[in-house]
Amino acid sequence: MSETRPIDVWTLGETMVRLVPKGFTRLEEAQELECRTGGSESNVAVALARLGMAVAWISQLPANPLGRMIERRLRSFGVDTSRVLWEEGGRAGVYFIEPAAMPRRAQVLYDRAHSAASHMRPEQIDWTALAQVRHVHLTGITVALSDSCLATVARALAEARSRGCTTSFDVNYRARLWSVEAARQALEPLLTGVDLLITPLADAQLLWGLPADGEAAAAALRERFEAKVVAVTLGAEGALCHDGQVRSAASFAVREVDRVGAGDAFDAGLLFGFLRGDLDLGIAYGMAMAGLKHSIPGDEFVATREEVESLLAGASLEIHR
Fold first, then answer.
1. Active site residues per annotation
2. pTM recorded for the entire structure
3. Could you give the C-alpha distances from 43 to 3, 25, 38, 301, in angstroms and in order?
């Protein structure tokens, strides 16, 4: 299929401007803010592009310098942004991270209401482009942004299936965007029949009252949503995936530099194996990439396939000369 469909993965979602004080300065005292970009779906796209896959990302951005910055950065990583929508007079979503060291917890502050991405509508998108796509990846974050984004994600799933694309969906529940009840009601019909369902165990417990047992939760979700494969991340205990057979992988010891985007790096690694028909490879790549991401500042996975394979091979972590 890859020979006739040049785009391996197509994804859709909001990417924001990310602002972080230097060091561990509190936001209210910050004199300088480091500016990067970040968004779950584009993080996955960047990570897959770093692995050598052909990836396309679509969103709606404001036709201003911030929108152009976001598009240019993603394009610089090799992500196809040619079908991005532009909104005159719109705004880019912004989020702030206040880093912290124990016992103080890091904080995230969103300023994303009424962003250009939240105004996306299904009729704006040229769905015929999916005829050139192997796989469509979506998340619950986009669904939470607005009713029109919910409709767009639902249409994306329907269009993907009608054109023979496989699909994946990361639940990615965000309590600051919507309630448990609203998330459950919106996500239930979307998750039914996806090829690959991904969720943290904590989200599965919160949304569907599932047991604190990864294997049992994966089996229950697989039956409930008729998903071919369910992957459950378990934090420090690693991750597992269930397709009738259960496969698991341990987490790597990390020294945390920036944990934001680690779940997206896991998704990318899992998709890398899934699209090769090798879930053992996928979950191993996912855990290695999540571990590496903890060591990389910013949302995006700025590492190479060789670094992933070196980590999996147990290479020394001393300086490579």
1. 264
2. 0.95
3. 25, 25, 7, 7
Which helix (DSSP H) or strand (DSSP E) does residue 12 occupy? strand 7-12
Token pair 């796989």: residue: 135
Residues 92 and 19: their CA atoms lie apart, in Å, by 13
**Which alpha helices (H) appear in the chain, and where do they start and end?**
40-50, 65-76, 140-145, 147-162, 180-191, 201-208, 214-225, 262-274, 279-293, 305-312
> Beta partners for 96?
19, 109
Read off the pLDDT of residues 302-316 as tens digits, 9 standing for 90 and up: 999 999 999 999 855
**At CA 267, angle to CA 307 and CA 230, rounded to 5?**
130
| Rounded Cα distance, 282 and 245, in Å | 14
| Distance from the Cα of residue 208 to its chain's centroid | 21
- Angle at which helices 262-274 and 279-293 pack, to 10 degrees? 160
Query: Which residues are paired to 198 by β-bridges?
Result: 170, 231
In Å, how far from its chain's centre is CA 91?
22
